[in-house]
Amino acid sequence: MRRGTALLAVALVAGCGLPADDEPHSVSLPRQPLTAPLPSAVPARPGAYVEILCLVRDGRLVQAVRRIDTPPDAQRHLDDLLAGPDESERDAGMTTALTGLTLTVTRSPGGGEARVEVAETDESKAITDDTLTYGQVVCTLTSRADVSAVVFTRDGARLEVPRANGALSRDPLTGPDYAALITTA
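That's the GerMN domain-containing protein sequence above. Prediction below.
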């Protein structure tokens, strides 16, 4: 019975039209990040791009996926997060911890680091030590293919912000720094 199964497997593999290789070799996949722009010769179709926003539900971070018509730059992506959940996301119980904040993102030249300037125009709206607030920004921006880490600043000086485990850091932050707060449901 085993020999028959093995012969059948060999026949199926041989019949698929792929030549057998003696050694493994690398394969280049023709994929690009979901947020990457399409080549200019191909017109974008409505909802052709994906934008991931990290919102809050039941005291935890949850990713919301939106389909949009044009690829957002990092500032637009952050502005969409600051605008809060849309109607369908609110209906799903999502909220935001970013109400009333002004945040500006700049990118480091040639690198994947994003700097988020936290404006302190109104003390009552300033970020204090809310881990979910920082987690929303970090998880949203690092969902982009062109951002690998986020640093928070005020007046150009790095801020000490909390990670999910409560430890404070001035170092660049990444999604895994807030993984303990992310829910998949």
